[in-house]
Specification:
Length: about 130
């Protein structure tokens, strides 16, 4: 299990820092008209990155993957994972430690926490043992 999975499991909610770590975990491949391109990003303390564009540096902010269910599900789709399977894993967890075990209630304001659990399910589904 990677350190990132452990960090997400311990976190009370998603954050910009966790968003950046999830983005880094799956590489900095950015889509363009000719397919994904790999870009070297210089990560900043605020979770953003500086991206070289010609001779300029452009600030790039990773998608809010750990904070937004839409962003988390978009990541699952981009990785070719089964969204229903990932959602089920996020809700149930492999040993019952998914979002239902936390007392999560969709009627309460903390409902966006499901994005964090979706990211955990994505990470576990793609875990190769590397950090």
């Amino acid at each position: 299990m990677t350190d990132l999975i452990k960090r997400l499991e311990k976190a009370e909610a998603g954050s910009r820092e966790l968003d950046a770590l999830v983005f880094q975990r799956f590489g900095s491949e950015l889509p363009n008209a000719f397919g994904p391109i790999r870009v070297d990003l210089e990560w900043q303390d605020d979770g953003s990155a500086l991206m070289p564009v010609g001779e300029m540096q452009v600030r790039f902010t990773p998608p809010p993957t750990t904070q937004s269910l839409d962003a988390a599900l978009a990541l699952a789709e981009r990785l070719g994972l089964s969204v229903p399977q990932i959602l089920n894993e996020a809700l149930e967890g492999p040993s019952g430690e998914g979002i239902w075990a936390t007392g999560w209630n969709p009627d309460k304001p903390h409902a966006p926490q499901i994005a964090k659990f979706v990211c955990i399910a994505i990470l576990k589904a793609t875990d190769t043992g590397r950090e």
